[in-house]
Design brief:
Structural class: mainly alpha
Helix content: 40-55%
Oligomer: single chain
Largest sheet: none
Order of helices and strands: HHHH
Number of helices: 4
Distance between the termini: 72 Å
Radius of gyration: 21 Å
Amino acid sequence: MLGTRTDTVRARIAPELKNSVERIFSSLGMNSSQAIVLFFKQVELHNGLPFEVKIPPNSPLNMATMTDEEIDAALQVGFDDIAAGRCIPLEKAHADFRRRHAKWSNTPSR
């Protein structure tokens, strides 16, 4: 079999997004290059994007409708954010919340 000729695709991706997605690819047994080839093949087969592009509703998670695996995955996202330092101290979160919502409160913001 003759060597397959390839071309290069370059994209700038936020490191957090890249790392998160690469963990998912790894759990699926593929790397980023294989996932990109898969995506391109699907675009070619569908003659367009292989999924609907829309803004998802911003609804809170409902544990009553989630499986144990979905709850574990949602919790893991939070644990990963904490481990990566993507969090703020509780006191700052409370202060920011009070400041943003002071007009609806009977108590003065700090």
